[in-house]
Specification:
InterPro entries: Benzoxazolinone_Detox_Enz (IPR052353), MoCF_Sase_C (IPR005302), Pyrv_Knase-like_insert_dom_sf (IPR011037), Tri_helical_YiiM-like (IPR005163). This is MOSC domain-containing protein. Pfam families: MOSC (PF03473), YiiM_3-alpha (PF03475). Residues 31-167 form the MOSC domain. The chain is an alpha+beta fold. The chain is built from 7 helices and 13 strands. It has helices at residues 69-75, 125-131, 136-143, 175-182, 189-196, 203-215, 222-226, and strands spanning 3-6, 11-14, 19-21, 24-26, 32-34, 36-39, 62-66, 92-94, 107-110, 113-120, 148-154, 156-159, 164-168. The strands form 3 sheets. A 9-stranded mixed sheet has the order 1-13-9-10-11-7-8-2-5. Helix 1 (69-75) links the parallel strand 7 (62-66) and strand 8 (92-94). Helix 5 runs antiparallel to helix 6.
């Protein structure tokens, strides 16, 4: 028995063009509104990533970002009144579904496409360049208003008129809690064990957590957050 999460999508976006932001290649600002997404197992047709190491791949085929977060970032004076979806580089925009209501490993049905939640978005310095604010990535990391990624279990077409339904819940860790556990500055082996064992978690996150457990230290985030 599936559970209805969103009755209708707010927006669908894709883009094949890449831009230069302060000498850094990015596809974040090249997305446009579309009526449908043609979703394959490993990519969305017509969608491009400038950095395949950190974006895209089987665990990050689709990026979902809650539309209402733009309002919060405006209230914090981190973005302008004109910046809205898809300024975060998202493929899917919704209203009424956030990081506390979606869990790592959740299997969702979006139209004809079945997806699985794999990880929160890990904010990087390209967001600082995108919005002209040096602390934007850090603010996203600390607020957990980050959106999340999907792997594709069943490919197909997503229409703007489609709904989102929860088909199966596999873990008890929400996207927001995963963000809080992963980005806590304090080393916490028990938390890393719990998160790393989450069914469906992106392999890159599993690898990172295992490195922390092996080295007993948290990696330096300065390069990711500030470039």
């Amino acid at each position: 028995m599936s559970t209805l999460l969103v009755n209708r999508l707010s927006g669908l976006y894709l883009g094949a063009s890449l831009q230069e932001l302060s000498g850094v290649s990015t596809g974040i600002d090249g997305k446009k509104s579309v009526q449908q997404l043609v979703v394959n197992i490993d990519h969305v047709e017509g969608d491009a990533q400038a950095d395949p190491k950190h974006h895209g791949g089987l665990d990050r085929v689709l990026h979902h970002f809650p539309r209402e977060h733009y309002g919060q970032y405006r209230r914090w004076d981190l973005i302008t009144q004109l910046e809205d979806a898809p300024s975060m580089g998202e493929n899917i925009s919704t209203v009424g579904l956030n990081e506390s209501e979606v869990n790592i490993g959740d299997v969702l049905q979006i139209g004809a496409v079945t997806v699985q939640v794999t990880q929160p978005r890990s904010p990087c310095f390209k967001l600082n360049l995108q919005f002209g604010h040096r602390e934007f990535a850090l603010a996203m990391q600390q607020s957990q208003l980050c959106g999340w990624f999907y792997r594709v279990l069943t490919p197909g077409i997503i229409l703007l008129s489609d709904r989102i339904e929860l088909v199966e819940r596999k873990t008890d860790i929400s996207v927001a809690e995963a963000m809080a556990l992963y980005f806590s500055p304090e080393y916490d082996a028990k938390a890393y064990d719990r998160l790393a064992s989450c069914e469906g978690l992106a392999q890159s996150w599993v690898n990172s957590l295992q490195r922390r457990l092996a080295t007993q230290q948290v990696e330096d985030w300065q390069m990711r957050l500030y470039g």
